[in-house]
Model the fold of this input.
Amino acid sequence: MEINKPNVMLSSEEILALKPTERESYVRSLIKSILSRNENGIMASEMADATNLNRITVTKHLEYLVAIREAYKSDRGAGSIYYVNGRLIHPTDRLSIPIGNKIYEFFKLENAEGHFVFIQEKEQDELRSTTVRGGIMIRCHDIFQFMDGLQKFITIAGTKMENKP
Amino acid sequence: MSAPQIQVTHYRERKCKFSESTDLKINGKTLVTPTFAPRLKSDSDLKAYHKVGQVYSPRQLSAYVVRLLDTGRTLHSSMKKSTLSLVVDQSTLDTQFTPQSGEEILFVDPALEYMFYSVNMERLSNTPYVSRTIRDHLVRFLEKSKNLEEERLKGKSKDIMSASEFRDTQHTNFWTCVYKDAKMRMKLIRDTFTVELKARTDVLIPPVPLITSPHLLEVAIFMNEKSRAFSPSLSQEKRECADYFIIKPQILRNEHMMSTIKEYVSNSESPLTLFKFKNLNLNDENMALERIAFKSFLMELSLVSQHLENKAFGLLEAGNQTFPAALSSFAIVSTGFNLDREDRRKDQKEISPFMNRYDPKNMTMQSKETFLKTVENNDNLIPCYCKSCTENPTIPTNDFIEYNRRAREHYLLCREHEMREIITAIEKQESQMGFQRLDGSSLKNLKDIVPR
Done:
């Protein structure tokens, strides 16, 4: 299967010329970009071949993306196939709520496993650039059950929750 | 899950032949194109620009351009709060950047053509906002040039290179090193983008050479590609990276190079491509060949922008070509906001404190003297319908501060009016208006570049 990848990528020499934090960030954004161009999923080995990156590095980044719910994986026999978490059902299906230095973004996504509400936690630095800290995916038809659960939890733990900033 | 940072929305009813008005969304802010983006070079320019924005809310002036070498004196804080520690190559500047007021779109232009042209070269070599790689090269270059000049004056050697040959060679050598050396290249891109991001640019513009030869075109394309590949990691995918070409006007006559640029632009993934034809004046009688080439270039870009879903073009330092470029699908047109002060300095021994004024009918600048005569012949009323002149129809002849303030307001509002005229003509399917408008101006020769 042919892998869709960006027209231009940095060479190994250029990647080596980056600062460690930039390198991490570059590799992650490259992997995200390739994931989003291959909606039918991609294996870590295919990604490594397409990018000329070490397979362990690629797997580490893919697993991180799975952990923060930017991607999900399904195990198939010997390996796992990684998918981008989904695409917006409609451009307006998103909401951003800033609280303190955090931003909570809500998306309605669809992927091969159905429709989901995706809540992502982001943090903003002094230059207003944001870093994804984590996220959860809730199936659309489970969302009210989830809300009930959250409401119950707030009632139980309510006395300990303070409204102070 | 990040949304695309640049989105072009086309409307069927906002197209007319080679002209189009689109909605261009950059970094969450929407422009109705064509938009005039003045190039600001000082804090006072920025204040004047904001003042016009506050008082007159001009819709077609929602963007502005600041050159990298001007970021210090333009965006440097007249304002408070957002103190940032800016580090470019070990030199730390405790800098306060003016926080953007919000709705305008800021482009920070690396303007590396001054590595070739001597105007501003010294400033470029001194400004801490430019990568040390460039500054070091320029310091060496300026020193060598001085030595060469001294040798030439002493007549030491007959084989001394001419100043322009020396400049061309040094310029090409520098960019060849950048092309070959990955470390140097990435440092140059990183340093440039870091300052652009700190200045809170809305679009990243890559550091590219002035294109004077096929080799430097290759370097420019390479720098655009590499900058685009690197940009998401530095901007956390929050700023789109534009393609950028700074072209020497003579290159317009080189069909092969122009078609390489057109081909690259059509295939590039970047939704925004910026062009700058340095010191181009197509109204000049001797530029007939360039006019033909520019017309074909405009036609090509117009077709690309109308047929590709997410593609827009901008023309920086558009000069006299501002109006015809906006008419031919350039979404953003930009030109200086200094009202030709530098030109006046060249021509006149004494520097007049009065700025030139824009003559909207002729689409050129006029000196104070000519302007006063025009007003005198019009019963002492300014013959202009811009909001600023309508509110103050007489001129403060002796107060140059007030005169200049109003000249600036008038200039911005006139340009804004031109952009609105274009949009209205497109909506009425009368883009022919632009042709007639040029025909009635001092820029008659520019009729030839308007695709019809």
Observations:
- Chain A touches chain B at residues 6-11, 13-14, 16-19, 22, 25-26, 28-29, 33, 70, 85, 88, 91, 94, 105, 107, 109, 118, 120, 126-131 (CB under 8 Å).
- The longest strand of chain A covers residues 114-124.
- Strands of chain A lie at 42-43, 71-76, 79-84, 87-88, 94-99, 102-111, 114-124, 130-139.
- Helices of chain A lie at 12-16, 20-37, 44-51, 55-67, 143-157.
